[in-house]
Fold:
Amino acid sequence: MNYLNLNFFNLEKFFKILYLLLLLVLYKNKKIV
Structure:
């Protein structure tokens, strides 16, 4: 159970970082209104 919780936390952190990177790329490309 602890292992699953840890995996979920890592996935959440990974996707959060991925989302921030995506926003940064879009912002640099001026595609965000």
Q: What stands out?
A: The mean pLDDT is 83.
